[in-house]
TrEMBL record:
This is GTPase Der. The gene is der. It holds the Pfam family KH_dom-like. The keyword Repeat applies. Keywords: GTP-binding, Hydrolase, Nucleotide-binding, Repeat, Ribosome biogenesis. GTP 1 binds at residues 9-16, 56-60, 119-122. Transmembrane segments: none annotated. It comes from Lutibacter aestuarii. Residues 3-167, 174-349 form the EngA-type G domain.
Length: 433
């Protein structure tokens, strides 16, 4: 299952504004992960019950006009190859520009669903101006105002119809995605893992959407590796582009059950690593962190402990994530890495019987209830785990609106302590009863 929506268009048409609006719809649950080094946005949202990832292209580095245009063309081409749905944003204030025409020419040949969002249609007058864009010869048009939100609902309704439903994934093999920054050692890890079997990679990049899995049996475990991009041929263009690595990570994370995040020990846990981490968490995927190239690190007594502590600080409150120190080069703890990923996969499927959950949790929560709010006391009466693919719990109480985030975190920590959800994001709801 993959629902990646890419927003393309020339600079200043309102792509980022539209992106924010698409994501803000569900601000309480999701927010955007913005690239630290550059202004790249990707986020997770849902509409009419369907989930999707949104990637905002752009964040172009300003150079000469030629370079600039080349950069846009590259991003559009990548969006065409890698995204499932494309939203092409144009600007009614400016009308059709040569760059719009160029983008439209690229898009016209594409079989994927394309939505043309004619932006900045803030009032009825501009509705008439929008007609001009029919000349670009692209199918479906939507007049929107990203600033005031008008028209975006219709756009999303139409878009949601093209999104795929989340598939049932019971009883399938674990799907692992090896993700991380360029040069972290992802390919080396995969090669160390599959060793002489590397020829069993039969999928060719980009042939079909579903060819992203490859099945392996190693160390007695059966699993699928998602998007073993590193062992495939890479094109120079793709390697150069930060946009490509983001797109790749989003896609393989969407497909996986557990994200194996490879960090370069010699560089530490940096902004981009954190982005990928939170992306997995927002997608409710299991996570295992591998600190690779451990052979290169000069070790003193507390090196490992300090390294680990620093990462746990960064990823709080989701701190019980396995962190394993490996070397893809010497194959140190490669087995342990896979074994742990399998454990996390099992944790993610874990179902706590309602009776057991109530027996343990209600007592604990009674002894440590949410703080009174405006003189009112919250009483938690009952709890249950939802029948969702990933752990989600509902706590029924008299005044759910008074339960604050710190208390939710407390409850989450208790659940983690008692039931072991190591490496797995869990979601907690309070509802009225
Ligand atoms: N009037 C009006 N202005 C808008 C609308 N949407 C965006 N803008 C304005 O257009 C300008 C550009 O918006 P951005 O969202 O930054 O455009 P962008 O396409 O992401 O630009 P790049 O990051 O340069 O690619 C900003 O000043 C926005 O406030 C709209 O619906 N109506
Ligand atoms: N010393 C040491 N070097 C390593 C280790 N793992 C990878 N390397 C080296 O790090 C460099 C990058 O490794 P790759 O496996 O290509 O990294 P990658 O994450 O797949 O990189 P991209 O394909 O660019 O995303 C190579 O020169 C590897 O030989 C390790 O555990 N120890």
């Amino acid at each position: 299952m993959s629902n990646i929506v890419a927003i393309v268009g020339r600079p200043n048409v309102g792509k980022s504004t539209l992106f924010n609006r698409l994501i803000k719809k569900r601000e309480a649950i999701v927010d955007s992960v913005s690239g630290v080094t550059r202004d790249r946005h990707y986020g997770k949202s849902d509409w009419n019950g369907k989930e999707f990832s949104v990637i905002d292209t752009g964040g172009y580095t300003v150079g000469s006009d030629d370079i600039f245009e080349g950069e846009i063309r590259k991003q559009v081409q990548l969006a065409i190859e890698e995204a499932d749905i494309i939203v092409f944003v144009v600007d009614v204030e400016e009308g059709i520009t040569p760059m719009d025409t160029e983008v439209a020419n690229l898009l016209r040949k594409v079989k994927k669903p394309i939505f043309m969002a004619i932006n900045k249609v803030d009032n009825a007058m501009r509705e008439a101006d929008a007609v001009e864009f029919y000349n670009l010869g692209l199918g479906d048009h939507y007049t929107i105002s990203s600033i005031n939100g008008s028209g975006t609902g219709e756009l999303l309704d139409a878009l949601a119809e093209k999104l795929e439903d989340a598939p049932e994934q019971e009883n399938e093999l674990p799907r692992f995605a090896v993700v991380g920054r360029p040069n972290a050692g992802k390919s080396s890890f995969i090669n160390a893992l599959i060793g002489e079997d590397r020829n069993i990679v039969t999928n060719i990049a980009g042939t079909t959407r579903d060819s992203i899995d490859t099945k392996y049996n190693r160390f007695g475990f059966d699993f699928n590796l998602i998007d073993t991009a590193g062992i495939r041929k890479k094109s120079k263009v793709k390697e150069d582009l930060e946009f490509y690595s983001v797109m790749r990570a989003v896609r393989s994370i969407e497909f996986c059950d557990v994200a194996i995040l490879v960090i370069d020990a010699t560089r530490g846990f940096e902004g981009q690593d954190e982005n990928i981490f939170w992306l997995a968490e927002k997608n409710k995927k299991g996570v295992v962190i591998l600190i690779n190239k451990w052979d290169l690190v000069e070790k003193e007594t507390n090196t490992m402990r300090d390294f680990e502590a620093q990462i746990r600080r960064e990823i709080a409150p989701f701190t019980d994530v396995p962190i394993i120190f490996i070397s893809a080069l010497t194959k140190q703890r490669i087995f342990k890495a896979i074994e742990t990923a399998v454990e996390v996969f099992e944790n993610r499927k874990k179902r706590i019987p309602t009776s057991k959950l109530n027996e343990t949790m209600l007592d604990i929560l009674k002894q440590n209830p949410p703080p009174a709010y405006k003189g009112k006391f919250v009483k938690i009466k009952f709890c249950t785990q939802l029948p969702t693919p990933t752990p989600q719990f509902v706590f029924f109480c008299n005044l759910p609106q008074y339960v604050r985030d710190p208390y939710k975190r407390y409850v989450e920590n208790k659940l983690r302590e008692i039931f072991d959800f190591k490496g797995v994001p869990i979601v907690i709801y309070f509802r009225k009863k």
